[in-house]
Every structure is written in structure tokens, then in C-alpha cells.
Design brief:
single chain, 231 residues, alpha/beta, Rossmann fold, 6-stranded parallel beta sheet, elongated
Length: 231
């Protein structure tokens, strides 16, 4: 298997995203309780999450744009309280800063340093991770996200867009990610090779078709495998 470049998922591949998302919700709620108590009372965290899920369900045209979904959620929450001028920039800055305060898995940064010493890597994400805020931009040749591309994983077009940015044909790219559908099935359908970061070591869901080319416990295992191919 010849690999000339990699595409790499971010959330739950390089760091656990749930703690950051929960912290972002808490900090946003704290701001609302201080500055917009009526909104905070009407929309506690569970209700705000349910509203966002409703927005996502209604606006399938925004499935690739989590930022727009969150802006629309806040607009609706404020409007329901009779406020039609929600401070979206402030609210988004609070959420975005907390959302990007992530803690990398212990293996992620050392493995990235090893991998990017020999291969170009493009991040490939559906989410709002900011490589500069997290402090890992230097390890990536390109950043490809659903919002900018207009389609989200597992749509093959986002993988093809990443291949074009890298200047490498899909069959010589290894896509690395934690999600069996978004990462493995999506990349496979686009013609890329696949590496599943399977930290919990669960069995591959057979109903999803062929298993990934690589089933790895963590990023260290990926770096080891790539270095083995170079020998």
C-alpha cells in the first residue's frame, strides 16, 4: 500500500471533543445568566441543545455548517424571548474559544511530529476546530473543513477536495479518523485508503462493509506503521 499523503480527522481522533463542547455550553450559559437572564431561564442548557438539534433537523441545507446552525439557534432563542438583536459575535466568540480549548490525547502530538516529518497531512473535519487556537497548525499542510467545502463527511466530495489540495491521487492518500461511517466509509467511497483510530478496540461493524485497511489503537500505532513502510 503506497501512501504519499494523509488526511486526518480532528475531533475524537486527536482529542476527546465532548469535554470541550460541554465546557462551551456552560460558559455560554453563564454569560446568558449574567447578561440575558430571561434567555437563560427560558433556554437552559438541555433546552438550548434540543433547539440546536431541531435547527439541524429543519435546515438540512446547513448540515455542513455548524457555525451557521449555532448562529440560527441563538437567533431563535433570543427571538422567542422577544429579543430580535442577539449579540451573535459575542456569543460565538465565547462558544468558539471554549470549544477549541481541547486537551490532546497523550499520543497525538508526538505522533503528529513523527508523521509530518515524512508525509504531508491535511486536516479534514466537519467541525469547528481551529488549528491556530489549538496550537497545531504547523503540523498540517492544509486545513479542509465542511463549512468551506460546502459538503460534509461522509460525502466523497470533501475527500476529493482534500486530495486536490494535497496534489495527490486519492488511492495514494490514507485517511485517518475515529468514526466508522464519516471517516472510514466516506474515505473508502472516495477511493482513499483508510485507517480507523479505534481507541476502545471494538469490533468493526460488519454491516458497514469491508473493514478499514488499518485498525489502530492510537496515533502512535499509525506513526509506527508509516515508519515501517519507509524502511
Amino acid at each position: 500500500m503506497r501512501i504519499r499523503a494523509l488526511t486526518l480527522d480532528l475531533d475524537d481522533t486527536l482529542w476527546p471533543v465532548l469535554p470541550a463542547l460541554e465546557r462551551a455550553d456552560l460558559e455560554l450559559d453563564a454569560y446568558l445568566r449574567q447578561h440575558y437572564p430571561d434567555v437563560a431561564r427560558a433556554w437552559p442548557i438541555p433546552a438550548m441543545r434540543a433547539l440546536r438539534a431541531q435547527v439541524a433537523q429543519e435546515r438540512v441545507d446547513l448540515a455542513h455548517d455548524f457555525t451557521a446552525q449555532r448562529h440560527l439557534t441563538m437567533q431563535r432563542a433570543f427571538a422567542a424571548c422577544g429579543l430580535h438583536d442577539a449579540p451573535l459575535d459575542v456569543l460565538w466568540d465565547i462558544y468558539f474559544t471554549a470549544r477549541n480549548s481541547v486537551e490532546l490525547y497523550a499520543d497525538s502530538l508526538p505522533a503528529l511530529e513523527r508523521i509530518t516529518a515524512t508525509h504531508p497531512v491535511a486536516s479534514l473535519t466537519n467541525g469547528n476546530a481551529d488549528l491556530d487556537m489549538i496550537g497545531i497548525r504547523a503540523h498540517f499542510s492544509h486545513h479542509v473543513c465542511a463549512r468551506d467545502t460546502g459538503v460534509a463527511k461522509p460525502d466523497p466530495r470533501i475527500f476529493v477536495a482534500a486530495a486536490e489540495r494535497l496534489g495527490v491521487v486519492p488511492e495514494e492518500i490514507l485517511h485517518v479518523g475515529d468514526d466508522p461511517v464519516l471517516d472510514v466509509v466516506g474515505a473508502r467511497d472516495a477511493g482513499l485508503k483508510t485507517a480507523w483510530i479505534n481507541r476502545t478496540r471494538v469490533a468493526w461493524p460488519e454491516e458497514l462493509g469491508p473493514a478499514p485497511d488499518l485498525d489502530l489503537a492510537d496515533m502512535t500505532a499509525l506513526a509506527d506503521w508509516l515508519e515501517g513502510q519507509e524502511r
